[in-house]
Amino acid sequence: MLSEHKIYHALSEQHQMLGCDRELFMLNLLVAAALIFTALNTFVTIGALILGSLTFMLLRRMGKKDLQMRHVYLRQLHYRPYYRAQAPLLTPPRKRYLK
Protein backbone atom coordinates (compact mmCIF):
# COMPACT_ATOMS: atom_id res chain seq x y z
CA MET A 1 0.00 0.00 0.00
CA LEU A 2 1.09 3.52 -0.68
CA SER A 3 1.51 5.72 2.34
CA GLU A 4 -0.17 9.09 2.47
CA HIS A 5 1.82 12.26 2.95
CA LYS A 6 0.58 15.70 3.79
CA ILE A 7 1.33 18.45 1.30
CA TYR A 8 1.44 21.78 3.02
CA HIS A 9 -0.70 24.47 1.48
CA ALA A 10 2.11 27.04 1.54
CA LEU A 11 4.24 24.87 -0.75
CA SER A 12 1.64 24.60 -3.49
CA GLU A 13 0.08 28.06 -3.60
CA GLN A 14 0.95 30.67 -6.19
CA HIS A 15 2.72 33.88 -5.18
CA GLN A 16 0.10 36.47 -6.05
CA MET A 17 -1.10 39.83 -4.86
CA LEU A 18 -4.51 40.93 -6.16
CA GLY A 19 -4.25 38.41 -9.00
CA CYS A 20 -0.83 39.62 -10.21
CA ASP A 21 2.68 38.29 -9.87
CA ARG A 22 3.73 39.48 -6.41
CA GLU A 23 7.18 40.80 -7.34
CA LEU A 24 5.99 42.69 -10.42
CA PHE A 25 3.04 44.13 -8.50
CA MET A 26 5.30 45.43 -5.74
CA LEU A 27 7.71 46.86 -8.32
CA ASN A 28 4.78 48.64 -9.98
CA LEU A 29 3.75 50.15 -6.64
CA LEU A 30 7.33 51.21 -5.91
CA VAL A 31 7.75 52.95 -9.27
CA ALA A 32 4.40 54.75 -8.99
CA ALA A 33 5.14 55.87 -5.42
CA ALA A 34 8.64 57.02 -6.38
CA LEU A 35 7.26 59.10 -9.24
CA ILE A 36 4.61 60.67 -7.02
CA PHE A 37 6.81 61.49 -4.04
CA THR A 38 9.86 62.72 -5.95
CA ALA A 39 8.01 65.07 -8.28
CA LEU A 40 5.35 66.43 -5.87
CA ASN A 41 3.48 67.77 -8.87
CA THR A 42 -0.20 67.36 -9.69
CA PHE A 43 0.36 66.39 -13.32
CA VAL A 44 3.06 63.86 -12.48
CA THR A 45 0.84 62.40 -9.75
CA ILE A 46 -2.05 61.95 -12.18
CA GLY A 47 0.30 60.48 -14.78
CA ALA A 48 1.84 58.07 -12.26
CA LEU A 49 -1.61 56.94 -11.12
CA ILE A 50 -2.71 56.34 -14.72
CA LEU A 51 0.53 54.52 -15.55
CA GLY A 52 0.29 52.43 -12.38
CA SER A 53 -3.34 51.55 -13.09
CA LEU A 54 -2.61 50.51 -16.68
CA THR A 55 0.36 48.44 -15.56
CA PHE A 56 -1.78 46.82 -12.86
CA MET A 57 -4.42 45.89 -15.44
CA LEU A 58 -1.77 44.34 -17.69
CA LEU A 59 -0.21 42.44 -14.78
CA ARG A 60 -3.62 41.16 -13.73
CA ARG A 61 -4.31 39.99 -17.28
CA MET A 62 -0.92 38.29 -17.40
CA GLY A 63 -1.65 36.62 -14.06
CA LYS A 64 -4.91 35.20 -15.38
CA LYS A 65 -3.30 33.80 -18.52
CA ASP A 66 -0.13 32.34 -17.03
CA LEU A 67 1.39 33.27 -13.70
CA GLN A 68 4.77 31.81 -14.69
CA MET A 69 5.00 33.92 -17.88
CA ARG A 70 7.73 36.16 -16.48
CA HIS A 71 9.89 33.21 -15.43
CA VAL A 72 9.47 31.49 -18.80
CA TYR A 73 10.39 34.69 -20.66
CA LEU A 74 13.50 35.28 -18.54
CA ARG A 75 14.61 31.68 -19.03
CA GLN A 76 14.07 32.00 -22.78
CA LEU A 77 16.28 35.10 -22.80
CA HIS A 78 18.96 33.26 -20.84
CA TYR A 79 19.11 30.34 -23.30
CA ARG A 80 18.73 32.40 -26.49
CA PRO A 81 22.40 31.96 -27.58
CA TYR A 82 22.10 28.17 -27.39
CA TYR A 83 18.81 27.62 -29.22
CA ARG A 84 18.34 29.55 -32.42
CA ALA A 85 14.85 30.23 -33.67
CA GLN A 86 15.95 29.60 -37.25
CA ALA A 87 18.47 27.36 -38.91
CA PRO A 88 21.65 28.96 -40.26
CA LEU A 89 21.70 29.93 -43.94
CA LEU A 90 24.04 27.12 -45.01
CA THR A 91 22.01 24.31 -43.45
CA PRO A 92 21.18 21.60 -46.01
CA PRO A 93 17.46 21.06 -46.65
CA ARG A 94 15.70 18.29 -44.77
CA LYS A 95 14.81 15.05 -46.48
CA ARG A 96 11.18 14.76 -47.46
CA TYR A 97 9.62 11.36 -47.43
CA LEU A 98 6.66 10.42 -49.56
CA LYS A 99 3.59 9.07 -47.84
Automatic annotation (TrEMBL):
Bilayer-crossing regions: 26-59
InterPro entries: T4SS_VirB3/TrbD/AvhB
Keyword entries, A-Z: Membrane, Transmembrane, Transmembrane helix
Keyword field contains Transcription: no
Cellular compartments annotated: Membrane
Keyword Membrane annotated: yes
Domain of life: Bacteria
Gene Ontology CC terms, in alphabetical order: membrane
Pfam short name (any one): VirB3
NCBIfam families to which the protein is assigned, alphabetical: PRK13823.1
Protein name as it appears in the record: VirB3 family type IV secretion system protein
Organism: Candidatus Anaerobiospirillum pullicola
